[in-house]
Structures are given as C-alpha cells and as structure tokens.
Specification:
By secondary structure, the protein is of the alpha/beta class. α17 links the parallel β10 and β11. It is globular and about 85 Å long. It starts with a helix and ends with a strand.
C-alpha cells in the first residue's frame, strides 16, 4: 500500500506542468504527510519520493524547511544498497542523491563541502535544495569561529531603535579596548564613630545625612561579592551594519562575502526570526530570543538578551534559597505580565515549590484612585497555570511578593500592600530591575525600606570605575546602562563562541549578569540582589 501511494506521488512530482484539474491542494499535502507518518521514519526510496511530491505544496516556510530537513535526514540514514531504481525522469531525486555523495566525500572539510555544494547548485538549479539547503548540511559547511573572530555587528543604527543600538555598540566596542579595573571597595571607609557604636539612632542619622549630601549624585553600591571578569582580546576590526529597513538575507550575504565569520545581532525580534528561518550559513549570536516553540538546536545560532523572564526565574530561586513557601507574583494586567508570571511559576516549581499565585494591577492612575479610597492590595491571587504535572497546591499565608513594576508604580504598590496587612504578617518584598531607575533621593530610599531588587552587576557595585565610564556614554539613563552592559557581554560571548555550543559548564561573570548556556544555546543571566536598608542601597543579605 505504501509503495502504491508513494508512486502516485512520484507521478505528480515528475510532471513538468500542472493543469487546472491537477491543481495541488492542502489536502494533497496532508495526504502525503499521512504516508510519511505511517512510515514512522523508516528509510526507503518510496518515502523519499513522497517527500519530493509534498515539497512544492508547502507554502509555509517552516513546514517547507521541515520537509527538506526530514528528507535529508532520511537520505543520510539510508544504506548504499537501498539507493537504487531511480527513473530517468526523476531529476529531483537524482539531485538529492548526488548531493549526498558530495556530502559524504567532503563532510570533514567545510571549505571543500561549500565548493562542492556551489558546483551542485549550478548542475541542479531547479532542485528545492538549491534554494533551501537542509539545515544539517548548512551547519556542516560552517567553520569554527576561532580565537579571533571577524565580527559583523548587526544593530539598528537609525530609526526608532537607534538609541538602543548605539548603547549596545558602545559597550561592545569599549569592551574590545579592555575594561577599567575595579576600585578598592569603599565599604570600610565610613567614620569609625558610625561603626559598631551600637547606637541605632545615631547610625541612622549619619546614614541619612550622608545620603542627603549625595542626593544629586549617582548612588553607588560598594560590593565585594559581585565581580565582572576581564574580557577577551581581539584586534580584528569590527564592522557595524545598520539593520534599519534592511532585509536579513542581503545583509548576511554582504557580511559573509566580506569575510566576516560571526554575526552579533540582530536586535529586533522580527530580524532574529528572519535570520533563524533563512538558515544562515554563518555563526550568529542573536541579541534577542525567540519564543520557546520557535527554538531549535543549531550549531551556528545562539541567543543572548536582557530577558525579564530570566529576572523572574532569579526571583523564584532567591525566594527558595531564603526558605519562602508561599509566593505571590504581582504584575501588570497585560500579556507581558502573564509571561513574567508564567516564567516565575515554572522556575518555582522546578525548584520544588508548589503552586504560585498571581495578582495583576492596572495603570498608575487606577492605583492612585485605589489608594485615595484607602483600598490596599490584599495578599490573595489566582494559581498560575503551567504545564508541570503533580504539583500540589501550597497552603498558608503569603510570605513573599515578587513585584514587577516601574518606580512610579512601586511607590504606590508598596504602601497599598502595607495598608492591607498587619505588621506581624508582613511578607518579604522583591522587585525586578524595572523599578530601579537611578537618581533615587533619600526619601524614596527610606520609603522602600526592606525591598530587595535584582540588578545587573554593572549597577550593583561590581566595578564602579566601569560604571563611571558607562555613565559618560549613556547620559545616566538606567535602561541604556543595561544595554551598555549587554554590549560588553556580547563581546565576551562572541570571543568565546566556540565554547558556547560545546561546553555546558561555560560560565562568565558578565556586566549584565552571571552568564551560562542553557538548551538551544540560550544564554541565561543570573543577577545579584540589592536591598534598600536605612536609606541606602546595599547588597542583599
């Protein structure tokens, strides 16, 4: 039965024209897929013919590439004695078999393989592989980056994304020159009278005065527990490509023709998706991350971003380390808030926690209306639904709250929480870096007493000389500080690119976090925690 259906497909494939009565349809593609599924991956010439017949009917780029990738996988799994009986009019099938021969003869020599593929394309210009090579074959043509990669930096250098692209570029190029050394911690230089006096009132007065004197300065954190590693050296010139309004295939072709063997970028998610779908024949460190269902293992594609989901996972880990049992996630009422809550819950349960709860809040105006009516935020919520099985519903009162809010929102949310609870039931409060905007005055710091928040090492006291250097480059804009830190770490990752795919133990203390590599070569950032304490910002205890 399989043979008969496959040969029927072969007749459609071998026709050079399609009449009105033979117009292919979605049902034809589904019919061929049912034959493929029935074969259960068992290699055969008949199933190869079905793949070939199905290919021109697939209009979705992802499905089309999947067809080619599956055909190639099956072809590489076949024994030589299975590849026989090719008819004279089966030019497509003959082309694939010829390409297999080129691959097997040159798979250990990427340059020779590329040359062989180029020659093959001229001989089989109508083969679907001439336009869309199998992903595994493309990856076989890519050489390692090496210790001194030639880097093409893909960033928006004009248009609305220009300010973000420039901040990343500045950090990237400054890292190439080397980072300034970290100064000796100033944590031990306070007057002796304020240390160990045992007089809490005098200590607080001293700290408040010191904070007020420096109110207009950028609050620095002196931390000996957070560090930023030295960056690799590479004297190769870096070329910046403006991605604004440009098509990724043309930019990639230009970069590779000019001899660049590593692309860092692009930044915009739509561009990252385009470069992933085009199966680019070059190593790529994308500066954004695709959704989980779009990620696929590629030996030449890694993802690095300032992911707020990573911060949520950090918060879940921190609460578990501190022995918290019943967390509430307080997020904006938006798809963004839903994503953050889900990321927190998944990590919380992965670390052995029960079901986490979620509550949303509205705009700043609605928060002000609520606080004017004396309406607080009660410690209740709805369970966050994640795919984890067998997780028990946690019982008891809320003992920790993770707040994802802007600074203006946090100044309303914190007192609203305190309005609705008694002092004996006060939960620990944790916030994301979203609320830390810098230049906070003494009143704000005292108002936020006890709140812990995550922040990138560059802003958490790891290297205040580097922070001062960045301050002059980004006009003291905290959001741009973080992008500058991302640029520094992109440089470190780019110059360690070969280790990212092959070393699950890879770690680097970066300016944007402690970096490690997770599945599908996604870079994960672990952030340090700070805390508002007696009018100052200090490393969290």
């Amino acid at each position: 039965m399989l043979s008969t259906l496959a040969l029927t497909g072969c007749q459609i494939e071998s026709s050079t024209t399609t009449t009105a009565t033979q117009q292919p349809s979605v049902s034809d593609a589904s019919h061929y897929q049912s034959i493929i599924d029935a074969a259960q991956g068992k290699p055969s010439m008949d199933v190869l013919r079905v793949y070939i017949s199905q290919e021109p009917l697939l209009t979705d780029p992802a499905q089309h590439q999947a067809n080619i990738d599956s055909l190639w996988l099956m072809l590489t799994q076949m024994k030589p004695e299975q590849i026989q009986g090719i008819e004279a009019d089966e030019n497509i099938l003959l082309g694939w078999v010829d390409l297999l021969d080129i691959y097997q003869n040159n798979k250990d020599d990427p340059e020779a393989l590329r040359t062989g593929i180029d020659d093959w394309k001229t001989r089989y210009p109508h083969n679907p592989g001439a336009k869309n090579l199998p992903t595994a074959l493309v990856q076989g043509t890519i050489t390692k980056v090496g210790a001194n990669p030639r880097i093409a930096l893909f960033l928006p250098m004009s248009g609305q994304g220009q300010v973000f692209g420039q901040a990343i570029m500045q950090g990237f190029l400054d890292a190439q020159k080397g980072l300034p050394s970290s100064p000796v911690s100033q944590a031990s230089t306070a007057p002796a009278a304020s240390q160990g006096s045992g007089n809490d009132v005098l200590d607080q007065i001293y700290q408040e005065v010191a904070a007020t004197v420096n109110e207009n300065a950028n609050t620095e954190v002196a931390s000996s527990t957070v560090s930023i590693d030295a960056v690799p050296t590479n004297t190769q010139s870096v070329k910046v490509f403006d991605t604004q309004g440009k098509a990724m295939p043309q930019l990639v072709a230009q970069a590779t023709s000019e001899g660049y063997n590593l692309i860092v970028g692009p930044l915009l998610k739509s561009d990252v998706q385009a470069i992933a779908q085009m199966n680019a024949p070059v190593n790529v460190l994308a500066l954004n991350e695709l959704d989980a269902n779009q990620l696929q293992p590629r030996t030449n594609l890694c993802y690095f971003s300032l992911s707020p989901e990573d911060e949520a996972k950090n918060a879940a880990n921190q609460m578990r380390l501190e022995g918290k049992q019943m967390p509430l996630v307080l997020v904006p009422a938006s798809p963004f808030g839903d994503r953050i809550a889900k990321a927190f819950a998944e990590e919380w349960q992965a670390k052995g926690g029960g079901t986490a709860l979620m509550q949303t809040f509205g705009s700043t105006a609605s928060l002000k209306e609520s606080i004017n009516r004396g309406q607080g935020i009660r410690m209740t919520g709805t369970p966050i639904n994640v795919a984890t099985q067998g997780v028990e519903q946690a019982n008891g009162s809320i003992d920790a709250v993770y707040i994802v809010a802007t600074r203006d929102e946090l100044t309303l949310v914190k007192p609203m929480i305190e309005m609705a609870i008694s002092s004996r039931q006060r939960p620990a409060l944790y916030a994301s870096s979203r609320s830390n905007q810098g230049n906070s005055n003494a009143d704000y710091r005292f108002e936020m007493e006890g709140v812990k928040f995550s922040e990138v090492p560059l802003l958490a006291g790891a290297n205040n000389n580097l922070r001062k250097q960045a301050q002059g480059k980004v006009n003291n804009d905290y959001s741009l500080f973080r992008l500058y830190a991302m640029g520094i770490d992109a440089w470190s990752l780019a110059n360690n690119y070969d280790n990212l795919q092959n070393n699950g133990q890879f770690r680097v203390n970066g300016a944007s976090g402690m970096l490690s590599v997770h599945e599908n070569c996604v870079i994960y950032r672990e952030l340090p925690w700070l805390q508002f304490k007696q009018g100052q910002v200090k490393p969290a205890q």
